[in-house]
Structure formats: C-alpha cells, structure tokens
Write a structure and sequence with these properties.
Order of helices and strands: HHHHHHHHHHHHHHHHHHH
Protein name: O-antigen ligase family protein
Radius of gyration: 22 Å
GO molecular function: ligase activity
Strand content: under 5%
Number of strands: 0
Organism: Drouetiella hepatica Uher 2000/2452
Membrane topology: Multi-pass membrane protein
Keywords: Ligase, Membrane, Transmembrane, Transmembrane helix
Largest sheet: none
Amino acid sequence: MLQQSRLGSTIAAVSLESPGHNKFAWLIIWAWILVLAIILLAGAGRVLVPVFPVGSVTVGLFLYFRAPALYIGYTWWFCFLGSLIRRIIDYQSGQITPGRWGLTSMLVASISLITLFQQIPKVRRDRGLPFILSAMSVIYGFLIGLAYGRLNLQYMVSFFEWLGPIAFGFHLFSNWRSYPLYRQVTERCFVWGVLFMGAYGIFQFCVAPNWDRFYLDNLTATSFGKPFPFEIRVFSSLSSPQAFATVMMGGLLLLFSSSDALRLPASSIGYLSFLLSMARSGWLGWIAGTITFFPFLKPRFQMRFVLTLVLMVMLVTPLVTMEPFAEGINQRLESLSNPEGDVSLQGRSEGYSDALNLALSEPIGQGLGSAGPETALGGADSGILPLFFSLGWLGVVPYLTGTSLILLQVLRSKDSGQDTFASASRSIVLGTLAQVWFNNVFFDVFALILWGFLGISLAAQRYHQHQTL
C-alpha cells in the first residue's frame, strides 16, 4: 500500500504536464519568442518597452497554471536572458528605459507569489514557515520604505527583486511531489544555459556588440571594463560580471551532476567565459561549492566527480593560456594570492569598517535597497550592510532565522547521497552564501539562485524522505 501510495503521488505530479497541455504551452512560448525576434530584428525595440514585461508575465501566468514544469524552465531562462533582451531594447530605443535590467525576470519569478499566498494557511504542517518568516521581513522592509516616503517605480521594483526569489524558492519546495520533473527541467535549462551564456560571453569579449557598448556607456560603474573588444569584463547576458559569475557558478556545479552529452562542450565554453568575468567573488563561490559538493557524494560518485574535474581542467587550461584571454585572467588570479596589493579589496575593507557600526545600530531599518552612507565603498556590494540598512534588526532577525532554518534542514539531509543533483543544489547554495561579503546575495538574480536552490534542495529532501516511508 505504501509503495502504491508513493507511486500514485509521483504519477499525479508528473500528470500535471499532460502532452496536450505541453504542446499548446510550447506553441505559446514559441509564438512569444517569434514576436520578440521579429520586432528586434526589425530594429523596433522601442515598441517592446511596455510589451516585453507585460507579455512575458502574461505567458508566465499561462504556464504557471497550465504547464507548471515549463513555468520553472521559463523562469530560469528569463534569469539567463532577460537582461540581454532589455539591453537590445534600450539600444534600439536610444535611451535607458524605466526599471532595472533584470526587472522582467523578477516579475516572472514573482508569479510564484500566488503559491505563497495559497499555502500560507498550511505552512506549519508543510514545514514552509521559514520561507514565510523571510518573506514577512521583506514586506516589513517595504513598509518601512513607504513610511520614509519612497513610493516610486524604482522602489516598487526593488520589492519584487527581494520577494520574488523567496516566492520562487517556496514554489519549488511546496511542489516537492514534482521534484523529479522539476529536477529534470532545471538541469536541462542550466546545461543549455551554460552553453549559451558561455558562448555569448566569449562573443561579447571579442566583439563588444553595439547594445553592450551602449549599456556600458550609460553605466555609472567603472568596474565593468571598457566598451571595446578584449577590454570588457564579461557579463554575458546578465547585467553585471558578478551576477553572471554567480549564475554561471550554479550552472558549472550542476554540470558535475549531469550526464547530458552537452556537458563537456558546455563546460569548456562556460569555464572560459566564467574566468573572463574577472569576478573573484564568483570564483571563490565556485571553490566553496566544489569543496562542499565532494563530501556529500557516495564513493562511486566521488570518483566520477574527480574524473570530471580533471577532464574540465584539461579542457580549459589550453584556452586560458592563449591570448587574448590569458593576460586579464592571470592578473586577476594573481590578485587572489596578493590581497595586500588589491586596491579594490582594500577599498571594500575600508567601506565595511566605516559603515559596519552604523549598520548594526539600525533597529528599524530604512527600507528596501538602502545601502548605507554613499562614502562606504563596497557597502552596497555586500549582502550584510544592505540587509541591516534595509531591514534593521527587527527585519534582519526573522529574515536570517528563516534562511538559517532552511539551510540547516538542507544540510541535515541524509538521503541525497545518490541524488547528485540534490548535492549540487546544496553546494550552489553554499557557494552563493560564500559571496555574502562581496555581493548582495539577497536580492535580484543572486537571490533567485540562492532561494531557487534552497527551495529545490528542500524539495529533494522531502521527496526522498517520502520515498523511504
């Protein structure tokens, strides 16, 4: 009876994706891709300024209700490509259009708020309370910002950048019965995503396409390199080198668990573009994720992991020793071994020391997106200072409590040793959190990686526990 019950729950989960629904859903997706492609190829990107976010969310809503697994893949692909499409739209419009570059991807992820609100009455029974704690902290921070009179479009966008990733992670967890299907979709998306983002990143570095030059010319940041071939710090289809490196870190770690035939070409291209991002925080995150991945694997998977890692090194080493790739990568790698001469690191340290005491003295917070004094170099780049300035102690305590409770549950998992995807997901979470002193991992694309893999890691644990009952 128990075996029949487990089989029935699995069949019920997979039956959500009926062939009829899938065919029609794919028709909708391809129709939307065709519309975007025709308009952009015609150079009429200005038309898409309102149409792109509205149309993308409309398609996302259809997928959410009619093809749940495709909605997961759709969300991941918008994480990969949303910023690139927005840059092309801006270039063709001749101006920076309203909202952040990753706005559409956050809006698509925020569709999962429907799940969050539907599941609130039974979160205690389903062990989803930690997600609610963190979500309520974000809502608290949003209300504090409103009390400070910060009601504007930019502030509304920041609300979705903080809350949308939490909702998406909760959506993945609450649908744990569909874990095998969601695992398959996520792994496939990241294999192809690494291949595409890696290839585009190399193209961006060598060619510096016009829309990326336009983007760099309109940035106030000076740390993205110069808008010329071989002088760009690769950010590929994302909005910054750090965001790209974090997403690529997740994809490269997932490739260790994949048996897809594309994993080898995807890895070689992906690692080269990952290094060309010059994002040391992402490199350190990958190291942390790799180190924590190995111990959770069964011995036979550990051997496969080592062999895969050796093969990746053999594939990538010849590429990174070739010009024009070698010089910039080697300089950045050398800075890791010489922190005393790293001006950027020293600036960040000074910024932390100047603002940390002020941040820790915030009982109430200043609202979402607050990063402290502008003179605190590096403060806005970290996750700690913006968290305290945004939420204060009243918001930080429940937010970190919720995050820590989920992380502890994931780390206590004893059933995923045979599930290399679950082990990789856990390592991605740890690799993302390892960057907290360098990047604000609690909002935007960083948070989508963090919360998305927290959610699917917890779903894996719940699914495997159910299978052993």
